[in-house]
């Protein structure tokens, strides 16, 4: 094996940037594949995503919003779909939302929490206004 | 005169043979570009991050591939002795920030590997001798 005598942290940073750019594509693809595997049809141009850090607990109140309570409720719905995201509290994730048609051709809003390109949370919005996605993003964005 | 000609030919042959049989020795320094085969034909770069929870991304954009090759090809790298190798690599290879970069002349497959290296946030680069890795001999370390 051969080793460089000098250090090239700029090359490491460049590779991370390029990998992240490509990773975003595969994350979107992974999300769409997951949604389709649940027999939903994604409405054109309905997807939105936001990178955020989940609060550290389900008790958190941020900017007057009981964000922990909303996430707790969302996690209960997510657990019904086989995905418990409570172990991701405090971690950096991506929240993605889609407007979809279900098997009965009814419109739904669905939300996904992703760690990289792995879906770790998934629930159907209860049609409340504003949508869960908007409430979570507005409460947790810096 | 014929004897002199014979000696000249013999000398040229000896120099040629010595050049062809240059061995890869410890401490030998070369440019990293010499360890990436078929540089003009690189089609895919695989970026594998982390030691325990690995994630892999493929870069196939030709502009990005050319940019990476031009960034690394003139970097001087030195062959490590066995003891240097053993003191450097075992701990570092378990670092979750490590990037393992593999360049391919086609889709991802062992046969199309043309170069491989590891890089850490501090910027050290650890290059694999792909020629040696793909031969029947033990990888030179």
Percent range for β-strand residues of chain A = 25-35%
Number of helices of chain B: 4
State the secondary-structure class of chain A: alpha+beta
* β-sheet strand percentage of chain B: 15-25%
Portion of residues in helices of chain A? 25-40%
Largest sheet of chain B: 5 strands, antiparallel
Shape of chain A: globular
Supply Rg of chain B.
Answer: 19 Å
Question: What is the radius of gyration of chain A?
Answer: 18 Å
Taking the sheet with the most strands of chain A, its summary is: 5 strands, antiparallel
Number of strands of chain B: 7
Low-confidence stretches of chain A: none
Beta strand count of chain A: 6
Helix content of chain B: 25-40%
- Uncertain residue segments of chain B: 6-24
Largest interface: A-B, 22 and 41 residues
What is the global morphology of chain B?
globular
Average pLDDT of chain B works out at 77
Roughly how many Å apart are the termini of chain B?
Answer: 48 Å
Helix count of chain A equals 3
